[in-house]
Amino acid sequence: MYIKGKIMSIWDIFKKIENGNNNVKGKIEYIIVGLGNFGIEYNETRHNAGFMAVDRLSKKNGFDISRVKFKSKTGETLINGKRCLVLKPTTYMNNSGEAVAEAMNFYKIPIENVIVIYDDISLEPGKLRIRRKGSDGGHNGIKSIIALTGSIEFPRIKIGVGKKPNPNYNLADWVLSKFSEDDKKALEPVLEKAVDSLGFIVEGNIDKAMNLYNS
Asked: Fewer beta carbons under 10 A from the terminal one: N or C of the chain?
C-alpha cells in the first residue's frame, strides 16, 4: 500500500490502526504528561522538552495530540496494550497541575499511573533520568502537580537541558531560551529513550527502565 510517498507493509498499517486516536478502545489506564508552554515563541526552548518528548511519541505511534480537553491538548494511544491518555497542558508551566488533576479525577487514575516528562537543568543535554517519585526539585510545573494532586508518588522522566551558563544568569531566561544546534543533536537520542522507556513503565517495570535508560 502506498501512502504519502511511502510504501507501507501490512504490519505498518496494522500498527497505525492499533495506535490511531480513533481506534483506541478500553479504559484509560495511564496518563502521560509532557510539560511545556504553548505558543510559537516557546518552540524548541529548554522548558518545552516534555512537549518535545510527547510529540515524538505521537509521531512514533501515529496519533494526534489535538483534542482540547482537561485544559490540555490531548490524544490517546496504546503502549504495550495499555490505553494511555497523553496531555500537553495549555495552562502554561506554572499551572500544569490543573490539567493533571482534572484528567486524573475524570478517569479515576491513581497518581502512581501518571507519568510526567519534563526538563531538568541539573542534567546536561544528552542525559536522561527516570525516577519513581520525588520532590519538585525547584521545577514549577512539578510543584504545581504536587500541590494540586497532594502527592509526590508519580513516576517522572527528566530530560537534561543543561545548567545556567553562570550563577548570575536569570533562570527564567535560561529555561525559556532555545536549544543550541549541538544541544539539539544531543537531545535527539534522549527523546527516543524517553519514548521507549514508557513501555517498561506502563508494564510496572520502572526498575528495568531506570537500569536501561538512566544516564
From this structure: N
Q: Determine the Cα–Cα distance for residues 72 and 206; give it in Å rounded to an integer.
A: 26
CA–CA dist 147, 94 (Å, integer)? 11
Give me 145's grid cell.
Answer: 502537580
Pairing type for strands 30-34 and 82-89 reads parallel
Looking up cell 525547584, which residue turns up? 138
* CA 180 – CA 57 distance, rounded (Å): 23
In the chain, the DSSP E strands lie at 2-3, 6-7, 30-34, 67-69, 72-79, 82-89, 114-120, 128-131, 156-160
Q: Which three cell numbers stand for residue 205?
A: 517495570
Write out the catalytic residue numbers: 47
Give me the number of domains the chain comprises.
1
Which pTM does this prediction carry?
0.88
Interhelix angle 181-202/206-213, rounded to 10 degrees, is 150
> Which residues is 32 bridged to in the sheet?
86, 115
Using DSSP, state whether 41 is helix, strand or coil: helix
Taking only the tens place, the pLDDT of each residue in 125-147 is: 999 999 999 999 999 999 999 99
Q: What is the CATH number of the domain that holds 145?
A: 3.40.50.1470
The Cα–Cα gap between 105 and 35 comes to 19
